[in-house]
Amino acid sequence: MTEREIKLHVPDSAKTGISRHLRAAKAKRVTLQARYFDTPSRELARAGIALRLRKEGRRWVQTIKAPGADPLSRIELNHLRSAPELDLSLYTGTALEPLFANLQSPLCLRYETRVTRLVLMQEGPAGSIEIAYDQGALFAGELELPISEVEFEHVSGDIQYMFALAREWAEKHSLILDIRSKAERGDALAGLALTTTTDAAGQTVVATVANPNAGQLFRARKAGAVALKPKVDATQAYLACLNECLAQIIQNTAFAAGVDTHHANQGLHIEYTHQLRVGIRRLRSCLKLFNGWLPPLPDTSLKVLRAAFDQLGMARDGDVVALVVHPQLKLAGLPDLRMPRQSARGPKPSVVAANPELQAALIDLMSHVVQLGDQWQKTSAASSTEPVKPQLIKRLNDWLKKIGKKGSKFNELSIEAQHDLRKEVKSLRYCLDFSNDLLVKSNVGGLRKVLELVQEELGDLNDLYTAEMFYEPMTEKQPQAWFAIGWLRGAQAQKRLQAQTLFKQLAKAGAIKTR
Asked: Do residues 16 and 135 touch, judged by C-beta distance below 8 A?
């Protein structure tokens, strides 16, 4: 069977209200204990599969979950068990049999969950949704991770009812969208809490790590690869890109809002903000790449994302000045300055990320993408579609030619035009990454390398422009800040010349070939 659900993290401030609401609606209370299994080298997790034994009341259920058609879908197989023992013979004759037959190491217990669940079947005119509010913890070695989440699982009727209900709860209780499963979180916990060694007989032995650093538990979610088949059509490619971009945005938004990251250090929180903004840029690039071929995303939701991007940019600019540019200026001889407080640079990223308006927008975007995917599933079998590859390559080459023409006169462009060109370079690079599986590797390798160098150079130049705007207001009351202005303008001139040289190299890289 296929399971579809959307999950929201419940912060401390919302726990009482949600419990009261569900109890008043006569929600059923269930105690759940689950044990998750994998090999020491995480062979199941790397395949996107979770295998567990769960005690549900007095009975044990063996469950295996595999990825579905979109980030909210899972293929799920359940079997009742008479005892808490795995039985892999249950998968004989299924598509999962080869996976278990080819495991390199025996399965072992990786992590556990202990949860108290309040469950309610929400019946509405559009369908039925199971609401499950879980409170408890994940356990692996010496570490534990709190579980505080509410899941909305589609049972019957219109899938959009599930999204509408989740959106309503998110806005009412200030909940945070988090699409990770317990298995994903538990796998990360076990990766930090457990280690593997080899004994004298050559067998892999799992051991507990003493005093693991929980502050390093969750790294920022970086851009992932988009898997495209050679004859993929426009809708399939569009959905693959959208799902990848939204996964990066949603995960880093949750991290930036404080989900599982209360003990993360400053560097990690800065990276959450950075990767969240990268995800939004990639989403914009995806929409640009498929513009005119497929329905756009809801403009109201995109406007909310743009506002969040700008607010987070204020914090990001402050971090760049404080952690990158200012140390360089000090080494160059900058006199002491009184630096403005963080509050003067805009709202904290955690506040921006947890904003109910942003959370509602993310739910709406997921809803739109799932709806588009469902429509494609219904129509693809009944109609043939053309591969999108020729259209994509033509569009990429048109952009490459346009960028090369502007870049040939980079040093003559205004700062605003330079900034616009930088955004075009980023967009082209992201779109090359999206299209990577459709391109000739020997042809685009050199182009991608030069684009990376151009993007890095323009990024450094933008940091210098940002820093000048940061220090310029300080010159009125702190004349020594003019030292920074002079140094920055000299560095800007040098970066412009270097960028001009790289654009010439980009022109020599040539067009993207179709074969």
From this structure: no
162, 156 Cβ separation under 8 angstroms: no
- Tell me which H or E stretch contains 490: helix 482-508
* DSSP3 helix / strand / coil % (the chain, rounded to 5): 55, 20, 25
CA-based nearest residue to 250, from 398, 270, 242, 454: 242
Exposed e or buried b for every residue in 473-499, given b needs 16+ CB within 10 A? Answer: ebeeeeeebebbeebbeebbeebbebb
pLDDT tens column, 108-152: 999 999 999 999 999 999 999 999 999 999 999 999 999 999 999
Rounded CA separation 282/395 (Å) = 17
CATH of region 388-515, choose from 3.40.640.10, 1.10.1200.10, 1.20.910.10, 1.40.20.10:
1.40.20.10
Residue 314 and residue 345: Cα distance in Å, rounded? 6
Give the model confidence (pLDDT) of 300-337 as tens digits. Answer: 999 999 999 999 999 888 889 989 999 999 999 999 99
Domain 2-216 grouped into CATH 2.40.320.10: yes
Round to whole Å and give the CA distance between 399 and 405: 10
pTM of the predicted protein model = 0.94
CB neighbour burial string for 170-202, b if at least 16 within 10 angstroms, e if fewer: beebbbbbbbbebbebbbbbbbbbbeeeeeeee
pLDDT at 354 over 60: yes
Alpha carbon of residue 509 to chain centroid: 32
List Cβ neighbours of 501 (8 Å cut-off, separation of 6 or more). none
Residue 470 has pLDDT above 80, yes or no: yes
Say which DSSP state 70 is in: S
pLDDT on residue 345: 65
User: In this structure, which CATH number among 1.25.40, 1.20.120, 3.30.590, 1.10.287 belongs to the domain 232-387?
Assistant: 1.20.120
Strands 143-157 and 2-9: antiparallel
Q: For 380-424, write each residue's pLDDT tens digit.
A: 765 668 999 999 999 999 999 999 999 999 999 999 999 999 999
Name 364's Cβ contacts closer than 8 Å, sequence gap at least 6: 163, 167, 298, 300, 301
Same fold, 2-216 and 232-387: no
Domain extents for the chain?
2-216, 232-387, 388-515
Task: Specify the residue for token string 């970066």.
Answer: 495
